Every structure is written in C-alpha cells, then in structure tokens.
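Standup notes, structure subgroup. Blocker cleared on the magnesium ion input:
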Amino acid sequence: MKIALTFSSKEGLVEEYRNRRKKHEAGPTDDFFAEGDSMDTIHAVMQALRSLGHRVVGIEADEGAMLKLSAERPDLVMNMAEGLTGDCRESYIPMLCERLGLRYTGSDPLTLGICLNKMRTKEILGFYHVPNPPFQVFYPNEPVNTDHLIFPAIVKPIAEGSSKGIDNRSVVTDPAGAKLIIAEKLKTYEQPVIVETFLTGREFTVALWGNGTDVTVLPIVEIGFHELPEGAWPMYSYEAKWIWDVPEKPLQIFHCPAEIESSLKENIEELAKRAYSILGVRDWCRIDVRLDQENVPNILELNPLPGILPNPEDNSCFPKAARTAGYTYTEMIGNLIAIACRRTGITEFVNATLDRL
Ligand SMILES: Nc1ncnc2c1ncn2[C@@H]1O[C@H](COP(=O)(O)OP(=O)(O)O)[C@@H](O)[C@H]1O
Ligand SMILES: [Mg+2]
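Run returned:
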C-alpha cells in the first residue's frame, strides 16, 4: 500500500524556526532542537516500510504538509512528527489527517495534546486514582508560593519532551532553591512550570502497543543511574540523555528486560496499561514509571510518539524493548503498521504485512 511517512526533521525544525523568528526575539535555548528526527531515523523507517513491500513518500511536517498529503492521498500515514512550538505541536499531522479523512498511525490530536502537557495528564490520572507524584503548577508573572511543596522536588517545563529543561539543577531541596529554579525555568521556557515531589525509587520505561483489549507490554526497560557522574541526581536528565551519553563512551543506562520480581512486573504492566487506556492512547506508546518510597509504581509521563532511533548503539527505548521481544527494527515498524491497519479497518493489508514478518 502507499504510506506517507510524516516527520519533523532536525533540519526542517531549524529552518522553520529561522523563518518564524522575529528579529527582536532572543535566540533559541541550547536544548531547543533536542526533538526532531535525524535523517538516519527517517531513512531507516522509510527503508523498513519499503522492505515490507510498501510504496513510501516522506513528508516534512511543515506548512506544505497539508497540500502534499491531499495530493498524495496515501492509504495510511505513518506519523512521527513532533512539530516545532506550542502545546499542540504533536497534534498537527493527526489534525490534518482528520481533516483530509486519511488514516494514520498513533494517537489522535487530543491525546497527543494532553500527553504533552504534564499537568493535564496528571489531572486525568488523578481523577482515576492512578498513582503519580504530587505536583503544583507555577505560572509566569504570578506569586510563587512554595508552602505546600514536598522536598526534594523537581522543576520541569510543563510541555516539553526529551528532558528539555530537566537538568541536574532542576531538583531542589528547599523553598529558596525552588523559587530560584522556578523563576529561571519560567523565563527560559516561556511556559508554566510543574513542580513534582522527586521520587527516589527505581525508574522504568514501558513500551506498549495495540488497541482495546489487545494491548501488549514489551519487555520493561530499567533506567540505571549508577553510571552517572558523582553528584548527579538519580534521574534521566538532559545531561544524561544528550551530554554524558556520547557514542565514544555510551552510558550503560538501560537494562532490558529489567530484573524485577514478577509481582512488581505485573504491577508496572497493569499500571502502564491503565494509563494507556485512560489517556485514550492508540497503537503504541512509551510510558515512564518510577517507584515511590513505598515501592509503589507511579506514572511520570506518557510518550504517545515514542522515539525510534534505528541504531542499537543509540539509547532508544521503544526499539530496545522490541528487540528484546525478538523484533528486528523492520519487524517493529511492520507490527506497528499492522496494528494501525487492524484498528482502522484496512484488513487486506494486515495479513499481507504480518505474512512478511
Ligand atoms: N517526579 C519525579 N521524580 C523523580 N524523577 C523524575 C520526576 N520527574 C521526572 N524525573 C526524571 O526526569 C526524567 C525526565 O522527566 P520526564 O517527566 O519523563 O520528562 P521528558 O518528557 O522530558 O522525558 C525522568 O525520566 C526521570 O528520571
Ligand atoms: Mg520522559
């Protein structure tokens, strides 16, 4: 079938940013372009789709995307576009697909928008009594009252990903430190910040795929912190993701399958499946989970557009979990397409895709 791969390439994001930036505006933060797909990833996904027998067209999620999608009218859009700015940036391509009546992989605009906003996600999880760290939100130009914070606490921009704005200084241990970092993050990221109780237990990330009653949890990945430099808080910070983990000296931070006893494994899997269903996630997702002091698993966040770096050397959790379950990169993409085809009723392609796996 004909598949359009929609993406936000790093180059595309830089160009879009340049075109949009007004002269008087400050330049981008150092981590501004942490998101976005490398050409390696884009080519690897296109190659995987082609080797599964599909015709593939690549579409950058820029201003021309709607015209291209409507001219191409693919049978399915494989969406991995993260977009550039605003809380709804991940919803852009799904919204165009809805408007054009095209089928697409992954969650709808609403779920993508909510999951990018950590406060909204936690409000919904809280409504259903799904454990997640206590939190408070602070807004630009409003008084900062830290009376109710529980320390240590972590200060995060409300709607970012890829650990943007989450560095070693983000963990604060007293009201004065909290005020300082909250002010700093509000100014740098120009959006509300969320301050959460810092959970010190083990951390896991859980890859899931499927829909309805047919959701499968892939082998759980544990994030181990023992290789982080001395003095670093035990967390998967911006530094750990992008600075301390270099190809010449990769951090051995992921352990998959995680070594955990079966009851904890079951609890984590149940928790992840509940969050997936409550947030209305479709097809696939990667969910961050951390244990609190009582060893109760808590949801940190949901990533309904998980990163899928092709190189096993790169620390990319969804492909790592899929690999541990026995899927090659191509098989992982093939299974995602099959899941989306099954959900959207493109039945003739489900069997054809599965046959090739
Ligand atoms: N409440 C918390 N307690 C402990 N660690 C946290 C908490 N929130 C975030 N972290 C750490 O920061 C990392 C990034 O935070 P996360 O909320 O997942 O943001 P991102 O969307 O950037 O991945 C997590 O993987 C975890 O290591
Ligand atoms: Mg995360």
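Discussed briefly. The pocket of magnesium ion (ligand 2) is lined by residues 288, 301 (CB under 6 Å).
Next: hand off to the docking folks.
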